[in-house]
């Protein structure tokens, strides 16, 4: 009698490709825009509560919007990756951030990666050319995006 082949104890870690990573990035972009909208509406509600008779929606200069987006996006990515290794987009698609060995990324590399992803989002396009499905951010900071177990 032949024995059935036992499943391998070794699990393979699959790197995420451009499609899943792009969709996750789009979801995360929407989350950041939503967070900024919540911040703006919160400010408007506070101003309304302080003096409702003279209330006007606050006007925001473009530089505060651009810098606000940068700060919000970097903090969002940093907190999500530091706490769970996933953002909302990553969780939706079953992805997580990992180091080269597939383990959790050290916190000291998460903040630079978050900033790099926000400043240079087109680094993600390198995934298409990379045989190991790595973005420029992954190459520079020795990280990878994998499908979660």
What's the alpha carbon Rg, rounded to whole Å?
20 Å
Helix content: 55-70%
Number of strands: 2
Q: Sheet bearing the most strands, described?
A: 2 strands, antiparallel
Q: Calculate the mean pLDDT score and round it.
A: 89
Instruction: Compute the number of structural domains.
Output: 1
Individual helix count: 6
Distance between the termini: 34 Å
Structural class, please?
mainly alpha
Which stretches are low in confidence, meaning pLDDT under 50 for 5 or more residues running? 5-10
What would the principal axes of the Cα set say about the shape? elongated
- Which H/E pattern describes the elements? HHHEHHHE
Strand proportion: 5-15%
- How are the strands ordered across the major sheet? 1-2
Protein name: RDD domain-containing protein
Membrane topology: Multi-pass membrane protein
Keywords: Cell membrane, Membrane, Transmembrane, Transmembrane helix
Main location: membrane
Describe the structure.
The protein is mainly α. It has one domain. The protein is 56% helix and 7% strand. The protein has a two-stranded antiparallel sheet with strand order 1-2. It is elongated. The model is unreliable at 5-10 (pLDDT under 50). It is found in: Cell membrane.
Any key phrases for this structure?
two-stranded antiparallel ribbon; 149 residues; mainly alpha; elongated
Give the gist of this structure:
The protein has 149 residues and is mainly alpha-helical. The protein has six helices and two strands. The longest helix has 33 residues, at 18-50.
């Amino acid at each position: 009698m032949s024995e059935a082949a036992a499943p391998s104890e070794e699990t393979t870690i699959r790197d995420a490709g451009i499609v899943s990573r792009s969709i996750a990035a789009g979801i995360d972009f929407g989350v950041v825009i939503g967070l900024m909208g919540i911040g703006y509406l919160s400010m408007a509600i506070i101003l309304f509560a302080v003096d409702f008779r003279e209330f006007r929606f606050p006007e925001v200069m473009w530089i505060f919007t651009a810098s606000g987006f940068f700060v919000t996006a970097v903090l969002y990515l940093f907190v999500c990756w530091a706490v769970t290794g996933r953002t909302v987009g990553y969780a939706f698609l079953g992805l997580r951030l990992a180091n080269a060995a597939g383990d959790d990324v050290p916190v000291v590399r998460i903040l630079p990666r978050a900033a790099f992803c926000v400043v240079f989002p087109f680094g993600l396009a390198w995934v298409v050319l990379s045989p190991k499905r790595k973005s420029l951010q992954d190459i520079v900071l020795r990280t990878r995006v994998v499908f979660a177990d």
